[in-house]
Design a protein that fits this description.
Layout lengths: L2 H6 L1 H8 L3 H12 L6 H18 L6 H15 L2 H17 L3 H20 L10 H22 L2 H17 L5 H15 L2 H17 L3 H17 L3 H21 L5
Helix pairs in contact: 2-3, 3-4, 4-5, 4-6, 5-6, 6-7, 6-8, 7-8, 8-9, 9-10, 10-11, 11-12, 12-13
Length: 258
């Protein structure tokens, strides 16, 4: 993505980090109505729309069609980073639809392309920076790990997500939050409540740093669930009340109206 394109989508990204989907969609619609939109920017708009649809449960019947359009547009553009992003997003869409084999196949295609570009990252003719590529590799590994959490080897999945978490942490990237929470979820699925609590509390701390009340409510709900599993009903009720309060604040400050 070029610097002008990055700047154009900065405010959209800021809203998305706080789960302010209505505001993000309004900005996307304003961008899409501009006559001077480049092909790259139109693909970015589609990618952000697809992300919002995942997070809100909207447009389920058309999400895969939109993912296909993103793949076709990125392939026509011929820019490797966009092709990687398109394969990743279609893979995530298939995973959400429980089509795991197809999802993993696309993730593998994208990861193979990333690895090939990483080998060339010192070549001045390559537009993609090493940081860009490492972020995408981390994103791919995290998503593959999450799919494996649902249907495969939990230990292997946690190991993969931890690897992606280290990359996000080294880059000081906001996706560190998602990786941290996913590791906690993995430990919870294994029945390791102490480690699950550790990672959920870290995810809560990161959510507070990003000022994301919706995420704070989510992780507090997870923590309350673990307290209940430990028989700590008083703590569970206290944490649940905090989660409910933050959830209400989040809905009132960022209400979706369609």
């Amino acid at each position: 993505m070029t610097n002008p394109t990055i700047r154009k989508f900065e405010k959209v990204e800021q809203h998305l980090r706080k789960d302010e989907y209505h505001e993000a969609l309004r900005l996307l619609e304003a961008l899409e109505n501009q006559n001077d939109m480049t092909r790259e920017e139109r693909i970015e708009c589609q990618i952000h729309r697809l992300y919002i649809y995942w997070q809100t449960g909207l447009k389920r019947e058309t999400r895969l069609q939109l993912a296909d359009e993103i793949v076709q547009a990125s392939q026509a553009l011929g820019e490797p980073l966009y092709i990687i992003d398109a394969l990743l997003h279609k893979g995530k869409t298939l995973g959400i639809e429980n089509r795991m084999e197809e999802a993993n196949e696309l993730m593998l295609q994208a990861e193979t392309l990333v690895d090939s570009l990483l080998e060339q990252s010192g070549d001045s003719s390559t537009k993609a920076t090493k940081a860009d590529l490492l972020y995408r590799k981390a994103e791919l590994i995290m998503n593959k790990g999450y799919l494996e959490l649902i249907s495969g080897d939990k230990d292997s999945a946690i190991e993969q997500i931890e690897y992606s978490r280290q990359i996000f942490e080294n880059q000081n990237h906001h996706r560190l939050l998602a990786a941290t929470g996913n590791i906690g979820f993995g430990y919870e699925l294994k029945g390791d409540i102490e480690n699950a609590m550790k990672y959920y509390e870290e995810a809560l701390k990161l959510s507070e740093e990003f000022d994301n009340k919706n995420n704070q409510a989510c992780w507090l709900s997870m923590i309350a669930r673990l307290h209940r599993a430990k028989g700590e009903m008083g703590k569970a009720c206290e944490v649940s009340e905090r989660a409910l309060r933050l959830s209400r604040e989040s809905r009132s400050s960022s209400r979706l109206e369609f």
